[in-house]
Amino acid sequence: MADAATLVAQVRREVEPTEVGITQHPYIETVSSGRATIEGLRALPGHQYHVMQSMIRSSERLVERFGDTENGPFFRRRLEGAKAAAEELPDFAKALGMSEADLRSFEPRRGGFTYATYFAWLAEQGTAAEVAIVSLVNLPVWGAACGRLSRGLYAFYGLGPKDTRVLSRFAAMPTSSDEMQRIVQDGLDEGVAPKALARAARLVEEYEKEFWDALAEVDDAYRAWPPAAQAAQVEHAAA
Q1: What is the dihedral of CA 201, 205, 206, 210, to 10 degrees?
Q2: Of 153, 164, 32, 167, which Cα lies nearest the Cα of 94?
Q3: Is the whole model's pTM more than 0.85, yes or no?
Protein backbone atom coordinates (compact mmCIF):
# COMPACT_ATOMS: atom_id res chain seq x y z
CA MET A 1 0.00 0.00 0.00
CA ALA A 2 1.38 3.41 -0.97
CA ASP A 3 2.28 5.72 1.89
CA ALA A 4 1.31 9.41 1.73
CA ALA A 5 4.37 10.72 3.57
CA THR A 6 6.71 8.80 1.29
CA LEU A 7 4.88 9.97 -1.82
CA VAL A 8 4.86 13.63 -0.76
CA ALA A 9 8.60 13.50 -0.03
CA GLN A 10 9.25 11.91 -3.43
CA VAL A 11 7.14 14.50 -5.24
CA ARG A 12 8.92 17.34 -3.46
CA ARG A 13 12.25 16.00 -4.68
CA GLU A 14 10.92 15.73 -8.22
CA VAL A 15 9.60 19.32 -8.33
CA GLU A 16 12.64 20.84 -6.63
CA PRO A 17 14.10 22.28 -9.88
CA THR A 18 10.82 24.10 -10.54
CA GLU A 19 10.68 25.36 -6.97
CA VAL A 20 14.21 26.71 -7.27
CA GLY A 21 13.07 28.50 -10.43
CA ILE A 22 10.31 30.12 -8.37
CA THR A 23 12.29 31.01 -5.25
CA GLN A 24 15.05 32.52 -7.40
CA HIS A 25 12.68 33.97 -9.97
CA PRO A 26 13.80 37.25 -11.60
CA TYR A 27 10.48 38.94 -10.79
CA ILE A 28 10.72 38.11 -7.09
CA GLU A 29 14.38 39.13 -7.05
CA THR A 30 13.58 42.41 -8.79
CA VAL A 31 10.72 43.38 -6.49
CA SER A 32 12.47 42.30 -3.30
CA SER A 33 15.54 44.38 -4.19
CA GLY A 34 13.64 47.57 -5.07
CA ARG A 35 14.18 47.52 -8.85
CA ALA A 36 10.66 46.87 -10.18
CA THR A 37 8.76 49.28 -12.41
CA ILE A 38 5.41 50.55 -11.21
CA GLU A 39 3.64 48.59 -13.95
CA GLY A 40 5.56 45.50 -12.93
CA LEU A 41 4.33 45.96 -9.38
CA ARG A 42 0.75 46.55 -10.49
CA ALA A 43 0.85 43.34 -12.50
CA LEU A 44 0.75 41.38 -9.24
CA PRO A 45 -2.60 42.62 -7.87
CA GLY A 46 -3.90 42.90 -11.43
CA HIS A 47 -3.32 39.23 -12.14
CA GLN A 48 -4.26 38.16 -8.64
CA TYR A 49 -7.66 39.81 -8.91
CA HIS A 50 -8.67 37.49 -11.75
CA VAL A 51 -6.96 34.48 -10.18
CA MET A 52 -8.76 35.05 -6.88
CA GLN A 53 -12.17 35.38 -8.49
CA SER A 54 -11.60 32.04 -10.17
CA MET A 55 -10.20 30.44 -7.00
CA ILE A 56 -13.27 31.48 -5.00
CA ARG A 57 -15.58 29.79 -7.48
CA SER A 58 -13.33 26.71 -7.58
CA SER A 59 -13.31 26.56 -3.79
CA GLU A 60 -17.09 26.85 -3.74
CA ARG A 61 -17.27 23.93 -6.13
CA LEU A 62 -15.00 21.85 -3.89
CA VAL A 63 -17.28 22.59 -0.93
CA GLU A 64 -20.25 21.52 -3.05
CA ARG A 65 -18.51 18.26 -3.86
CA PHE A 66 -16.83 17.43 -0.55
CA GLY A 67 -18.47 19.63 2.07
CA ASP A 68 -20.56 16.80 3.51
CA THR A 69 -17.62 14.41 3.79
CA GLU A 70 -14.92 14.07 6.44
CA ASN A 71 -12.87 16.49 4.36
CA GLY A 72 -15.49 19.24 4.47
CA PRO A 73 -13.73 21.43 7.08
CA PHE A 74 -10.55 21.53 4.98
CA PHE A 75 -12.39 22.74 1.90
CA ARG A 76 -14.51 25.23 3.79
CA ARG A 77 -11.37 26.79 5.26
CA ARG A 78 -9.92 27.08 1.77
CA LEU A 79 -13.03 28.93 0.65
CA GLU A 80 -12.98 31.25 3.65
CA GLY A 81 -9.31 32.02 3.04
CA ALA A 82 -9.88 32.77 -0.64
CA LYS A 83 -12.72 35.16 0.17
CA ALA A 84 -10.69 36.93 2.87
CA ALA A 85 -7.74 37.38 0.51
CA ALA A 86 -10.02 38.82 -2.17
CA GLU A 87 -11.33 41.36 0.33
CA GLU A 88 -7.79 42.43 1.21
CA LEU A 89 -6.47 42.72 -2.34
CA PRO A 90 -7.96 46.19 -3.06
CA ASP A 91 -5.84 47.71 -0.26
CA PHE A 92 -2.71 46.38 -1.97
CA ALA A 93 -3.87 47.70 -5.34
CA LYS A 94 -4.76 51.10 -3.88
CA ALA A 95 -1.26 51.48 -2.44
CA LEU A 96 0.05 51.08 -5.99
CA GLY A 97 -2.40 53.60 -7.45
CA MET A 98 -4.99 51.12 -8.73
CA SER A 99 -8.72 51.36 -8.14
CA GLU A 100 -11.10 48.41 -7.97
CA ALA A 101 -12.22 49.39 -11.47
CA ASP A 102 -8.57 49.09 -12.56
CA LEU A 103 -8.44 45.59 -11.11
CA ARG A 104 -11.61 44.53 -12.90
CA SER A 105 -10.38 45.91 -16.23
CA PHE A 106 -6.83 44.55 -15.92
CA GLU A 107 -6.01 42.16 -18.74
CA PRO A 108 -3.98 39.19 -17.44
CA ARG A 109 -1.37 37.53 -19.57
CA ARG A 110 -1.97 33.93 -20.53
CA GLY A 111 0.70 32.50 -18.24
CA GLY A 112 -0.68 34.49 -15.34
CA PHE A 113 -3.96 32.60 -15.42
CA THR A 114 -2.94 29.00 -16.11
CA TYR A 115 -2.74 28.13 -12.39
CA ALA A 116 -6.33 29.25 -11.83
CA THR A 117 -7.49 27.42 -14.94
CA TYR A 118 -5.94 24.15 -13.83
CA PHE A 119 -7.30 24.53 -10.31
CA ALA A 120 -10.76 25.04 -11.78
CA TRP A 121 -10.32 21.70 -13.56
CA LEU A 122 -9.24 20.07 -10.31
CA ALA A 123 -12.26 21.53 -8.54
CA GLU A 124 -14.57 19.99 -11.11
CA GLN A 125 -12.88 16.69 -11.88
CA GLY A 126 -10.04 16.12 -9.41
CA THR A 127 -10.09 14.10 -6.23
CA ALA A 128 -9.83 15.49 -2.71
CA ALA A 129 -6.42 13.83 -2.49
CA GLU A 130 -5.15 15.72 -5.56
CA VAL A 131 -6.21 19.04 -4.06
CA ALA A 132 -4.58 18.12 -0.75
CA ILE A 133 -1.23 17.14 -2.25
CA VAL A 134 -1.25 20.31 -4.35
CA SER A 135 -1.64 22.27 -1.11
CA LEU A 136 1.10 20.33 0.67
CA VAL A 137 3.60 20.83 -2.14
CA ASN A 138 2.70 24.28 -3.44
CA LEU A 139 1.82 26.34 -0.36
CA PRO A 140 5.36 26.48 1.07
CA VAL A 141 6.88 27.93 -2.10
CA TRP A 142 3.95 30.29 -2.73
CA GLY A 143 3.98 31.51 0.87
CA ALA A 144 7.74 32.06 0.84
CA ALA A 145 7.49 34.09 -2.36
CA CYS A 146 4.73 36.28 -0.94
CA GLY A 147 6.75 36.83 2.22
CA ARG A 148 9.77 38.02 0.25
CA LEU A 149 7.63 40.35 -1.83
CA SER A 150 6.00 41.80 1.27
CA ARG A 151 9.37 42.54 2.86
CA GLY A 152 10.62 44.15 -0.33
CA LEU A 153 7.54 46.32 -0.61
CA TYR A 154 8.11 47.53 2.97
CA ALA A 155 11.78 48.23 2.44
CA PHE A 156 11.81 49.91 -0.96
CA TYR A 157 8.35 51.09 -2.02
CA GLY A 158 6.86 52.68 1.09
CA LEU A 159 4.04 50.18 1.61
CA GLY A 160 2.91 49.22 5.10
CA PRO A 161 1.36 46.19 6.81
CA LYS A 162 -2.22 47.14 5.88
CA ASP A 163 -1.26 47.52 2.23
CA THR A 164 0.31 44.08 1.99
CA ARG A 165 -1.82 42.09 4.42
CA VAL A 166 -3.01 39.92 1.53
CA LEU A 167 0.60 38.85 0.93
CA SER A 168 1.14 38.38 4.65
CA ARG A 169 -1.93 36.14 4.74
CA PHE A 170 -0.43 33.90 2.07
CA ALA A 171 2.97 33.92 3.77
CA ALA A 172 1.42 32.80 7.07
CA MET A 173 -0.72 29.97 5.68
CA PRO A 174 -0.07 26.52 7.17
CA THR A 175 2.24 24.70 4.79
CA SER A 176 1.76 21.22 6.20
CA SER A 177 -0.77 19.45 8.32
CA ASP A 178 -1.77 15.99 9.42
CA GLU A 179 -5.16 16.73 7.89
CA MET A 180 -3.82 17.28 4.38
CA GLN A 181 -1.60 14.22 4.62
CA ARG A 182 -4.54 12.18 5.88
CA ILE A 183 -6.61 13.26 2.85
CA VAL A 184 -3.80 12.15 0.55
CA GLN A 185 -3.54 8.82 2.37
CA ASP A 186 -7.30 8.30 2.16
CA GLY A 187 -7.11 8.88 -1.57
CA LEU A 188 -4.33 6.34 -1.95
CA ASP A 189 -6.27 3.84 0.14
CA GLU A 190 -9.32 4.39 -2.08
CA GLY A 191 -7.34 3.71 -5.24
CA VAL A 192 -6.21 7.13 -6.45
CA ALA A 193 -3.07 6.48 -8.47
CA PRO A 194 0.17 7.87 -7.02
CA LYS A 195 1.05 8.99 -10.53
CA ALA A 196 -2.10 11.15 -10.68
CA LEU A 197 -1.24 12.78 -7.36
CA ALA A 198 2.33 13.44 -8.44
CA ARG A 199 1.11 14.89 -11.73
CA ALA A 200 -1.24 17.33 -10.00
CA ALA A 201 1.54 18.62 -7.76
CA ARG A 202 4.00 18.91 -10.65
CA LEU A 203 1.58 20.79 -12.88
CA VAL A 204 0.65 23.28 -10.18
CA GLU A 205 4.31 24.05 -9.51
CA GLU A 206 4.88 24.58 -13.23
CA TYR A 207 1.81 26.79 -13.49
CA GLU A 208 2.98 28.89 -10.57
CA LYS A 209 6.31 29.38 -12.37
CA GLU A 210 4.33 30.56 -15.40
CA PHE A 211 2.51 33.05 -13.16
CA TRP A 212 5.78 34.68 -12.10
CA ASP A 213 7.02 34.54 -15.70
CA ALA A 214 3.98 36.54 -16.79
CA LEU A 215 4.63 39.22 -14.17
CA ALA A 216 8.28 39.41 -15.19
CA GLU A 217 7.22 39.92 -18.80
CA VAL A 218 5.19 42.96 -17.79
CA ASP A 219 8.01 44.41 -15.72
CA ASP A 220 10.57 43.76 -18.47
CA ALA A 221 8.35 45.33 -21.12
CA TYR A 222 8.11 48.61 -19.22
CA ARG A 223 11.80 48.59 -18.34
CA ALA A 224 12.80 47.92 -21.93
CA TRP A 225 10.46 50.48 -23.45
CA PRO A 226 10.36 53.76 -21.55
CA PRO A 227 8.49 56.48 -23.49
CA ALA A 228 11.62 58.05 -24.96
CA ALA A 229 13.00 54.75 -26.24
CA GLN A 230 9.60 53.73 -27.54
CA ALA A 231 9.27 57.00 -29.45
CA ALA A 232 12.73 56.52 -30.94
CA GLN A 233 11.79 53.01 -32.06
CA VAL A 234 8.63 54.30 -33.74
CA GLU A 235 10.60 57.04 -35.55
CA HIS A 236 13.18 54.47 -36.70
CA ALA A 237 10.47 52.17 -38.02
CA ALA A 238 8.82 55.05 -39.88
CA ALA A 239 12.10 55.99 -41.53
Answers
A1: 150
A2: 164
A3: yes
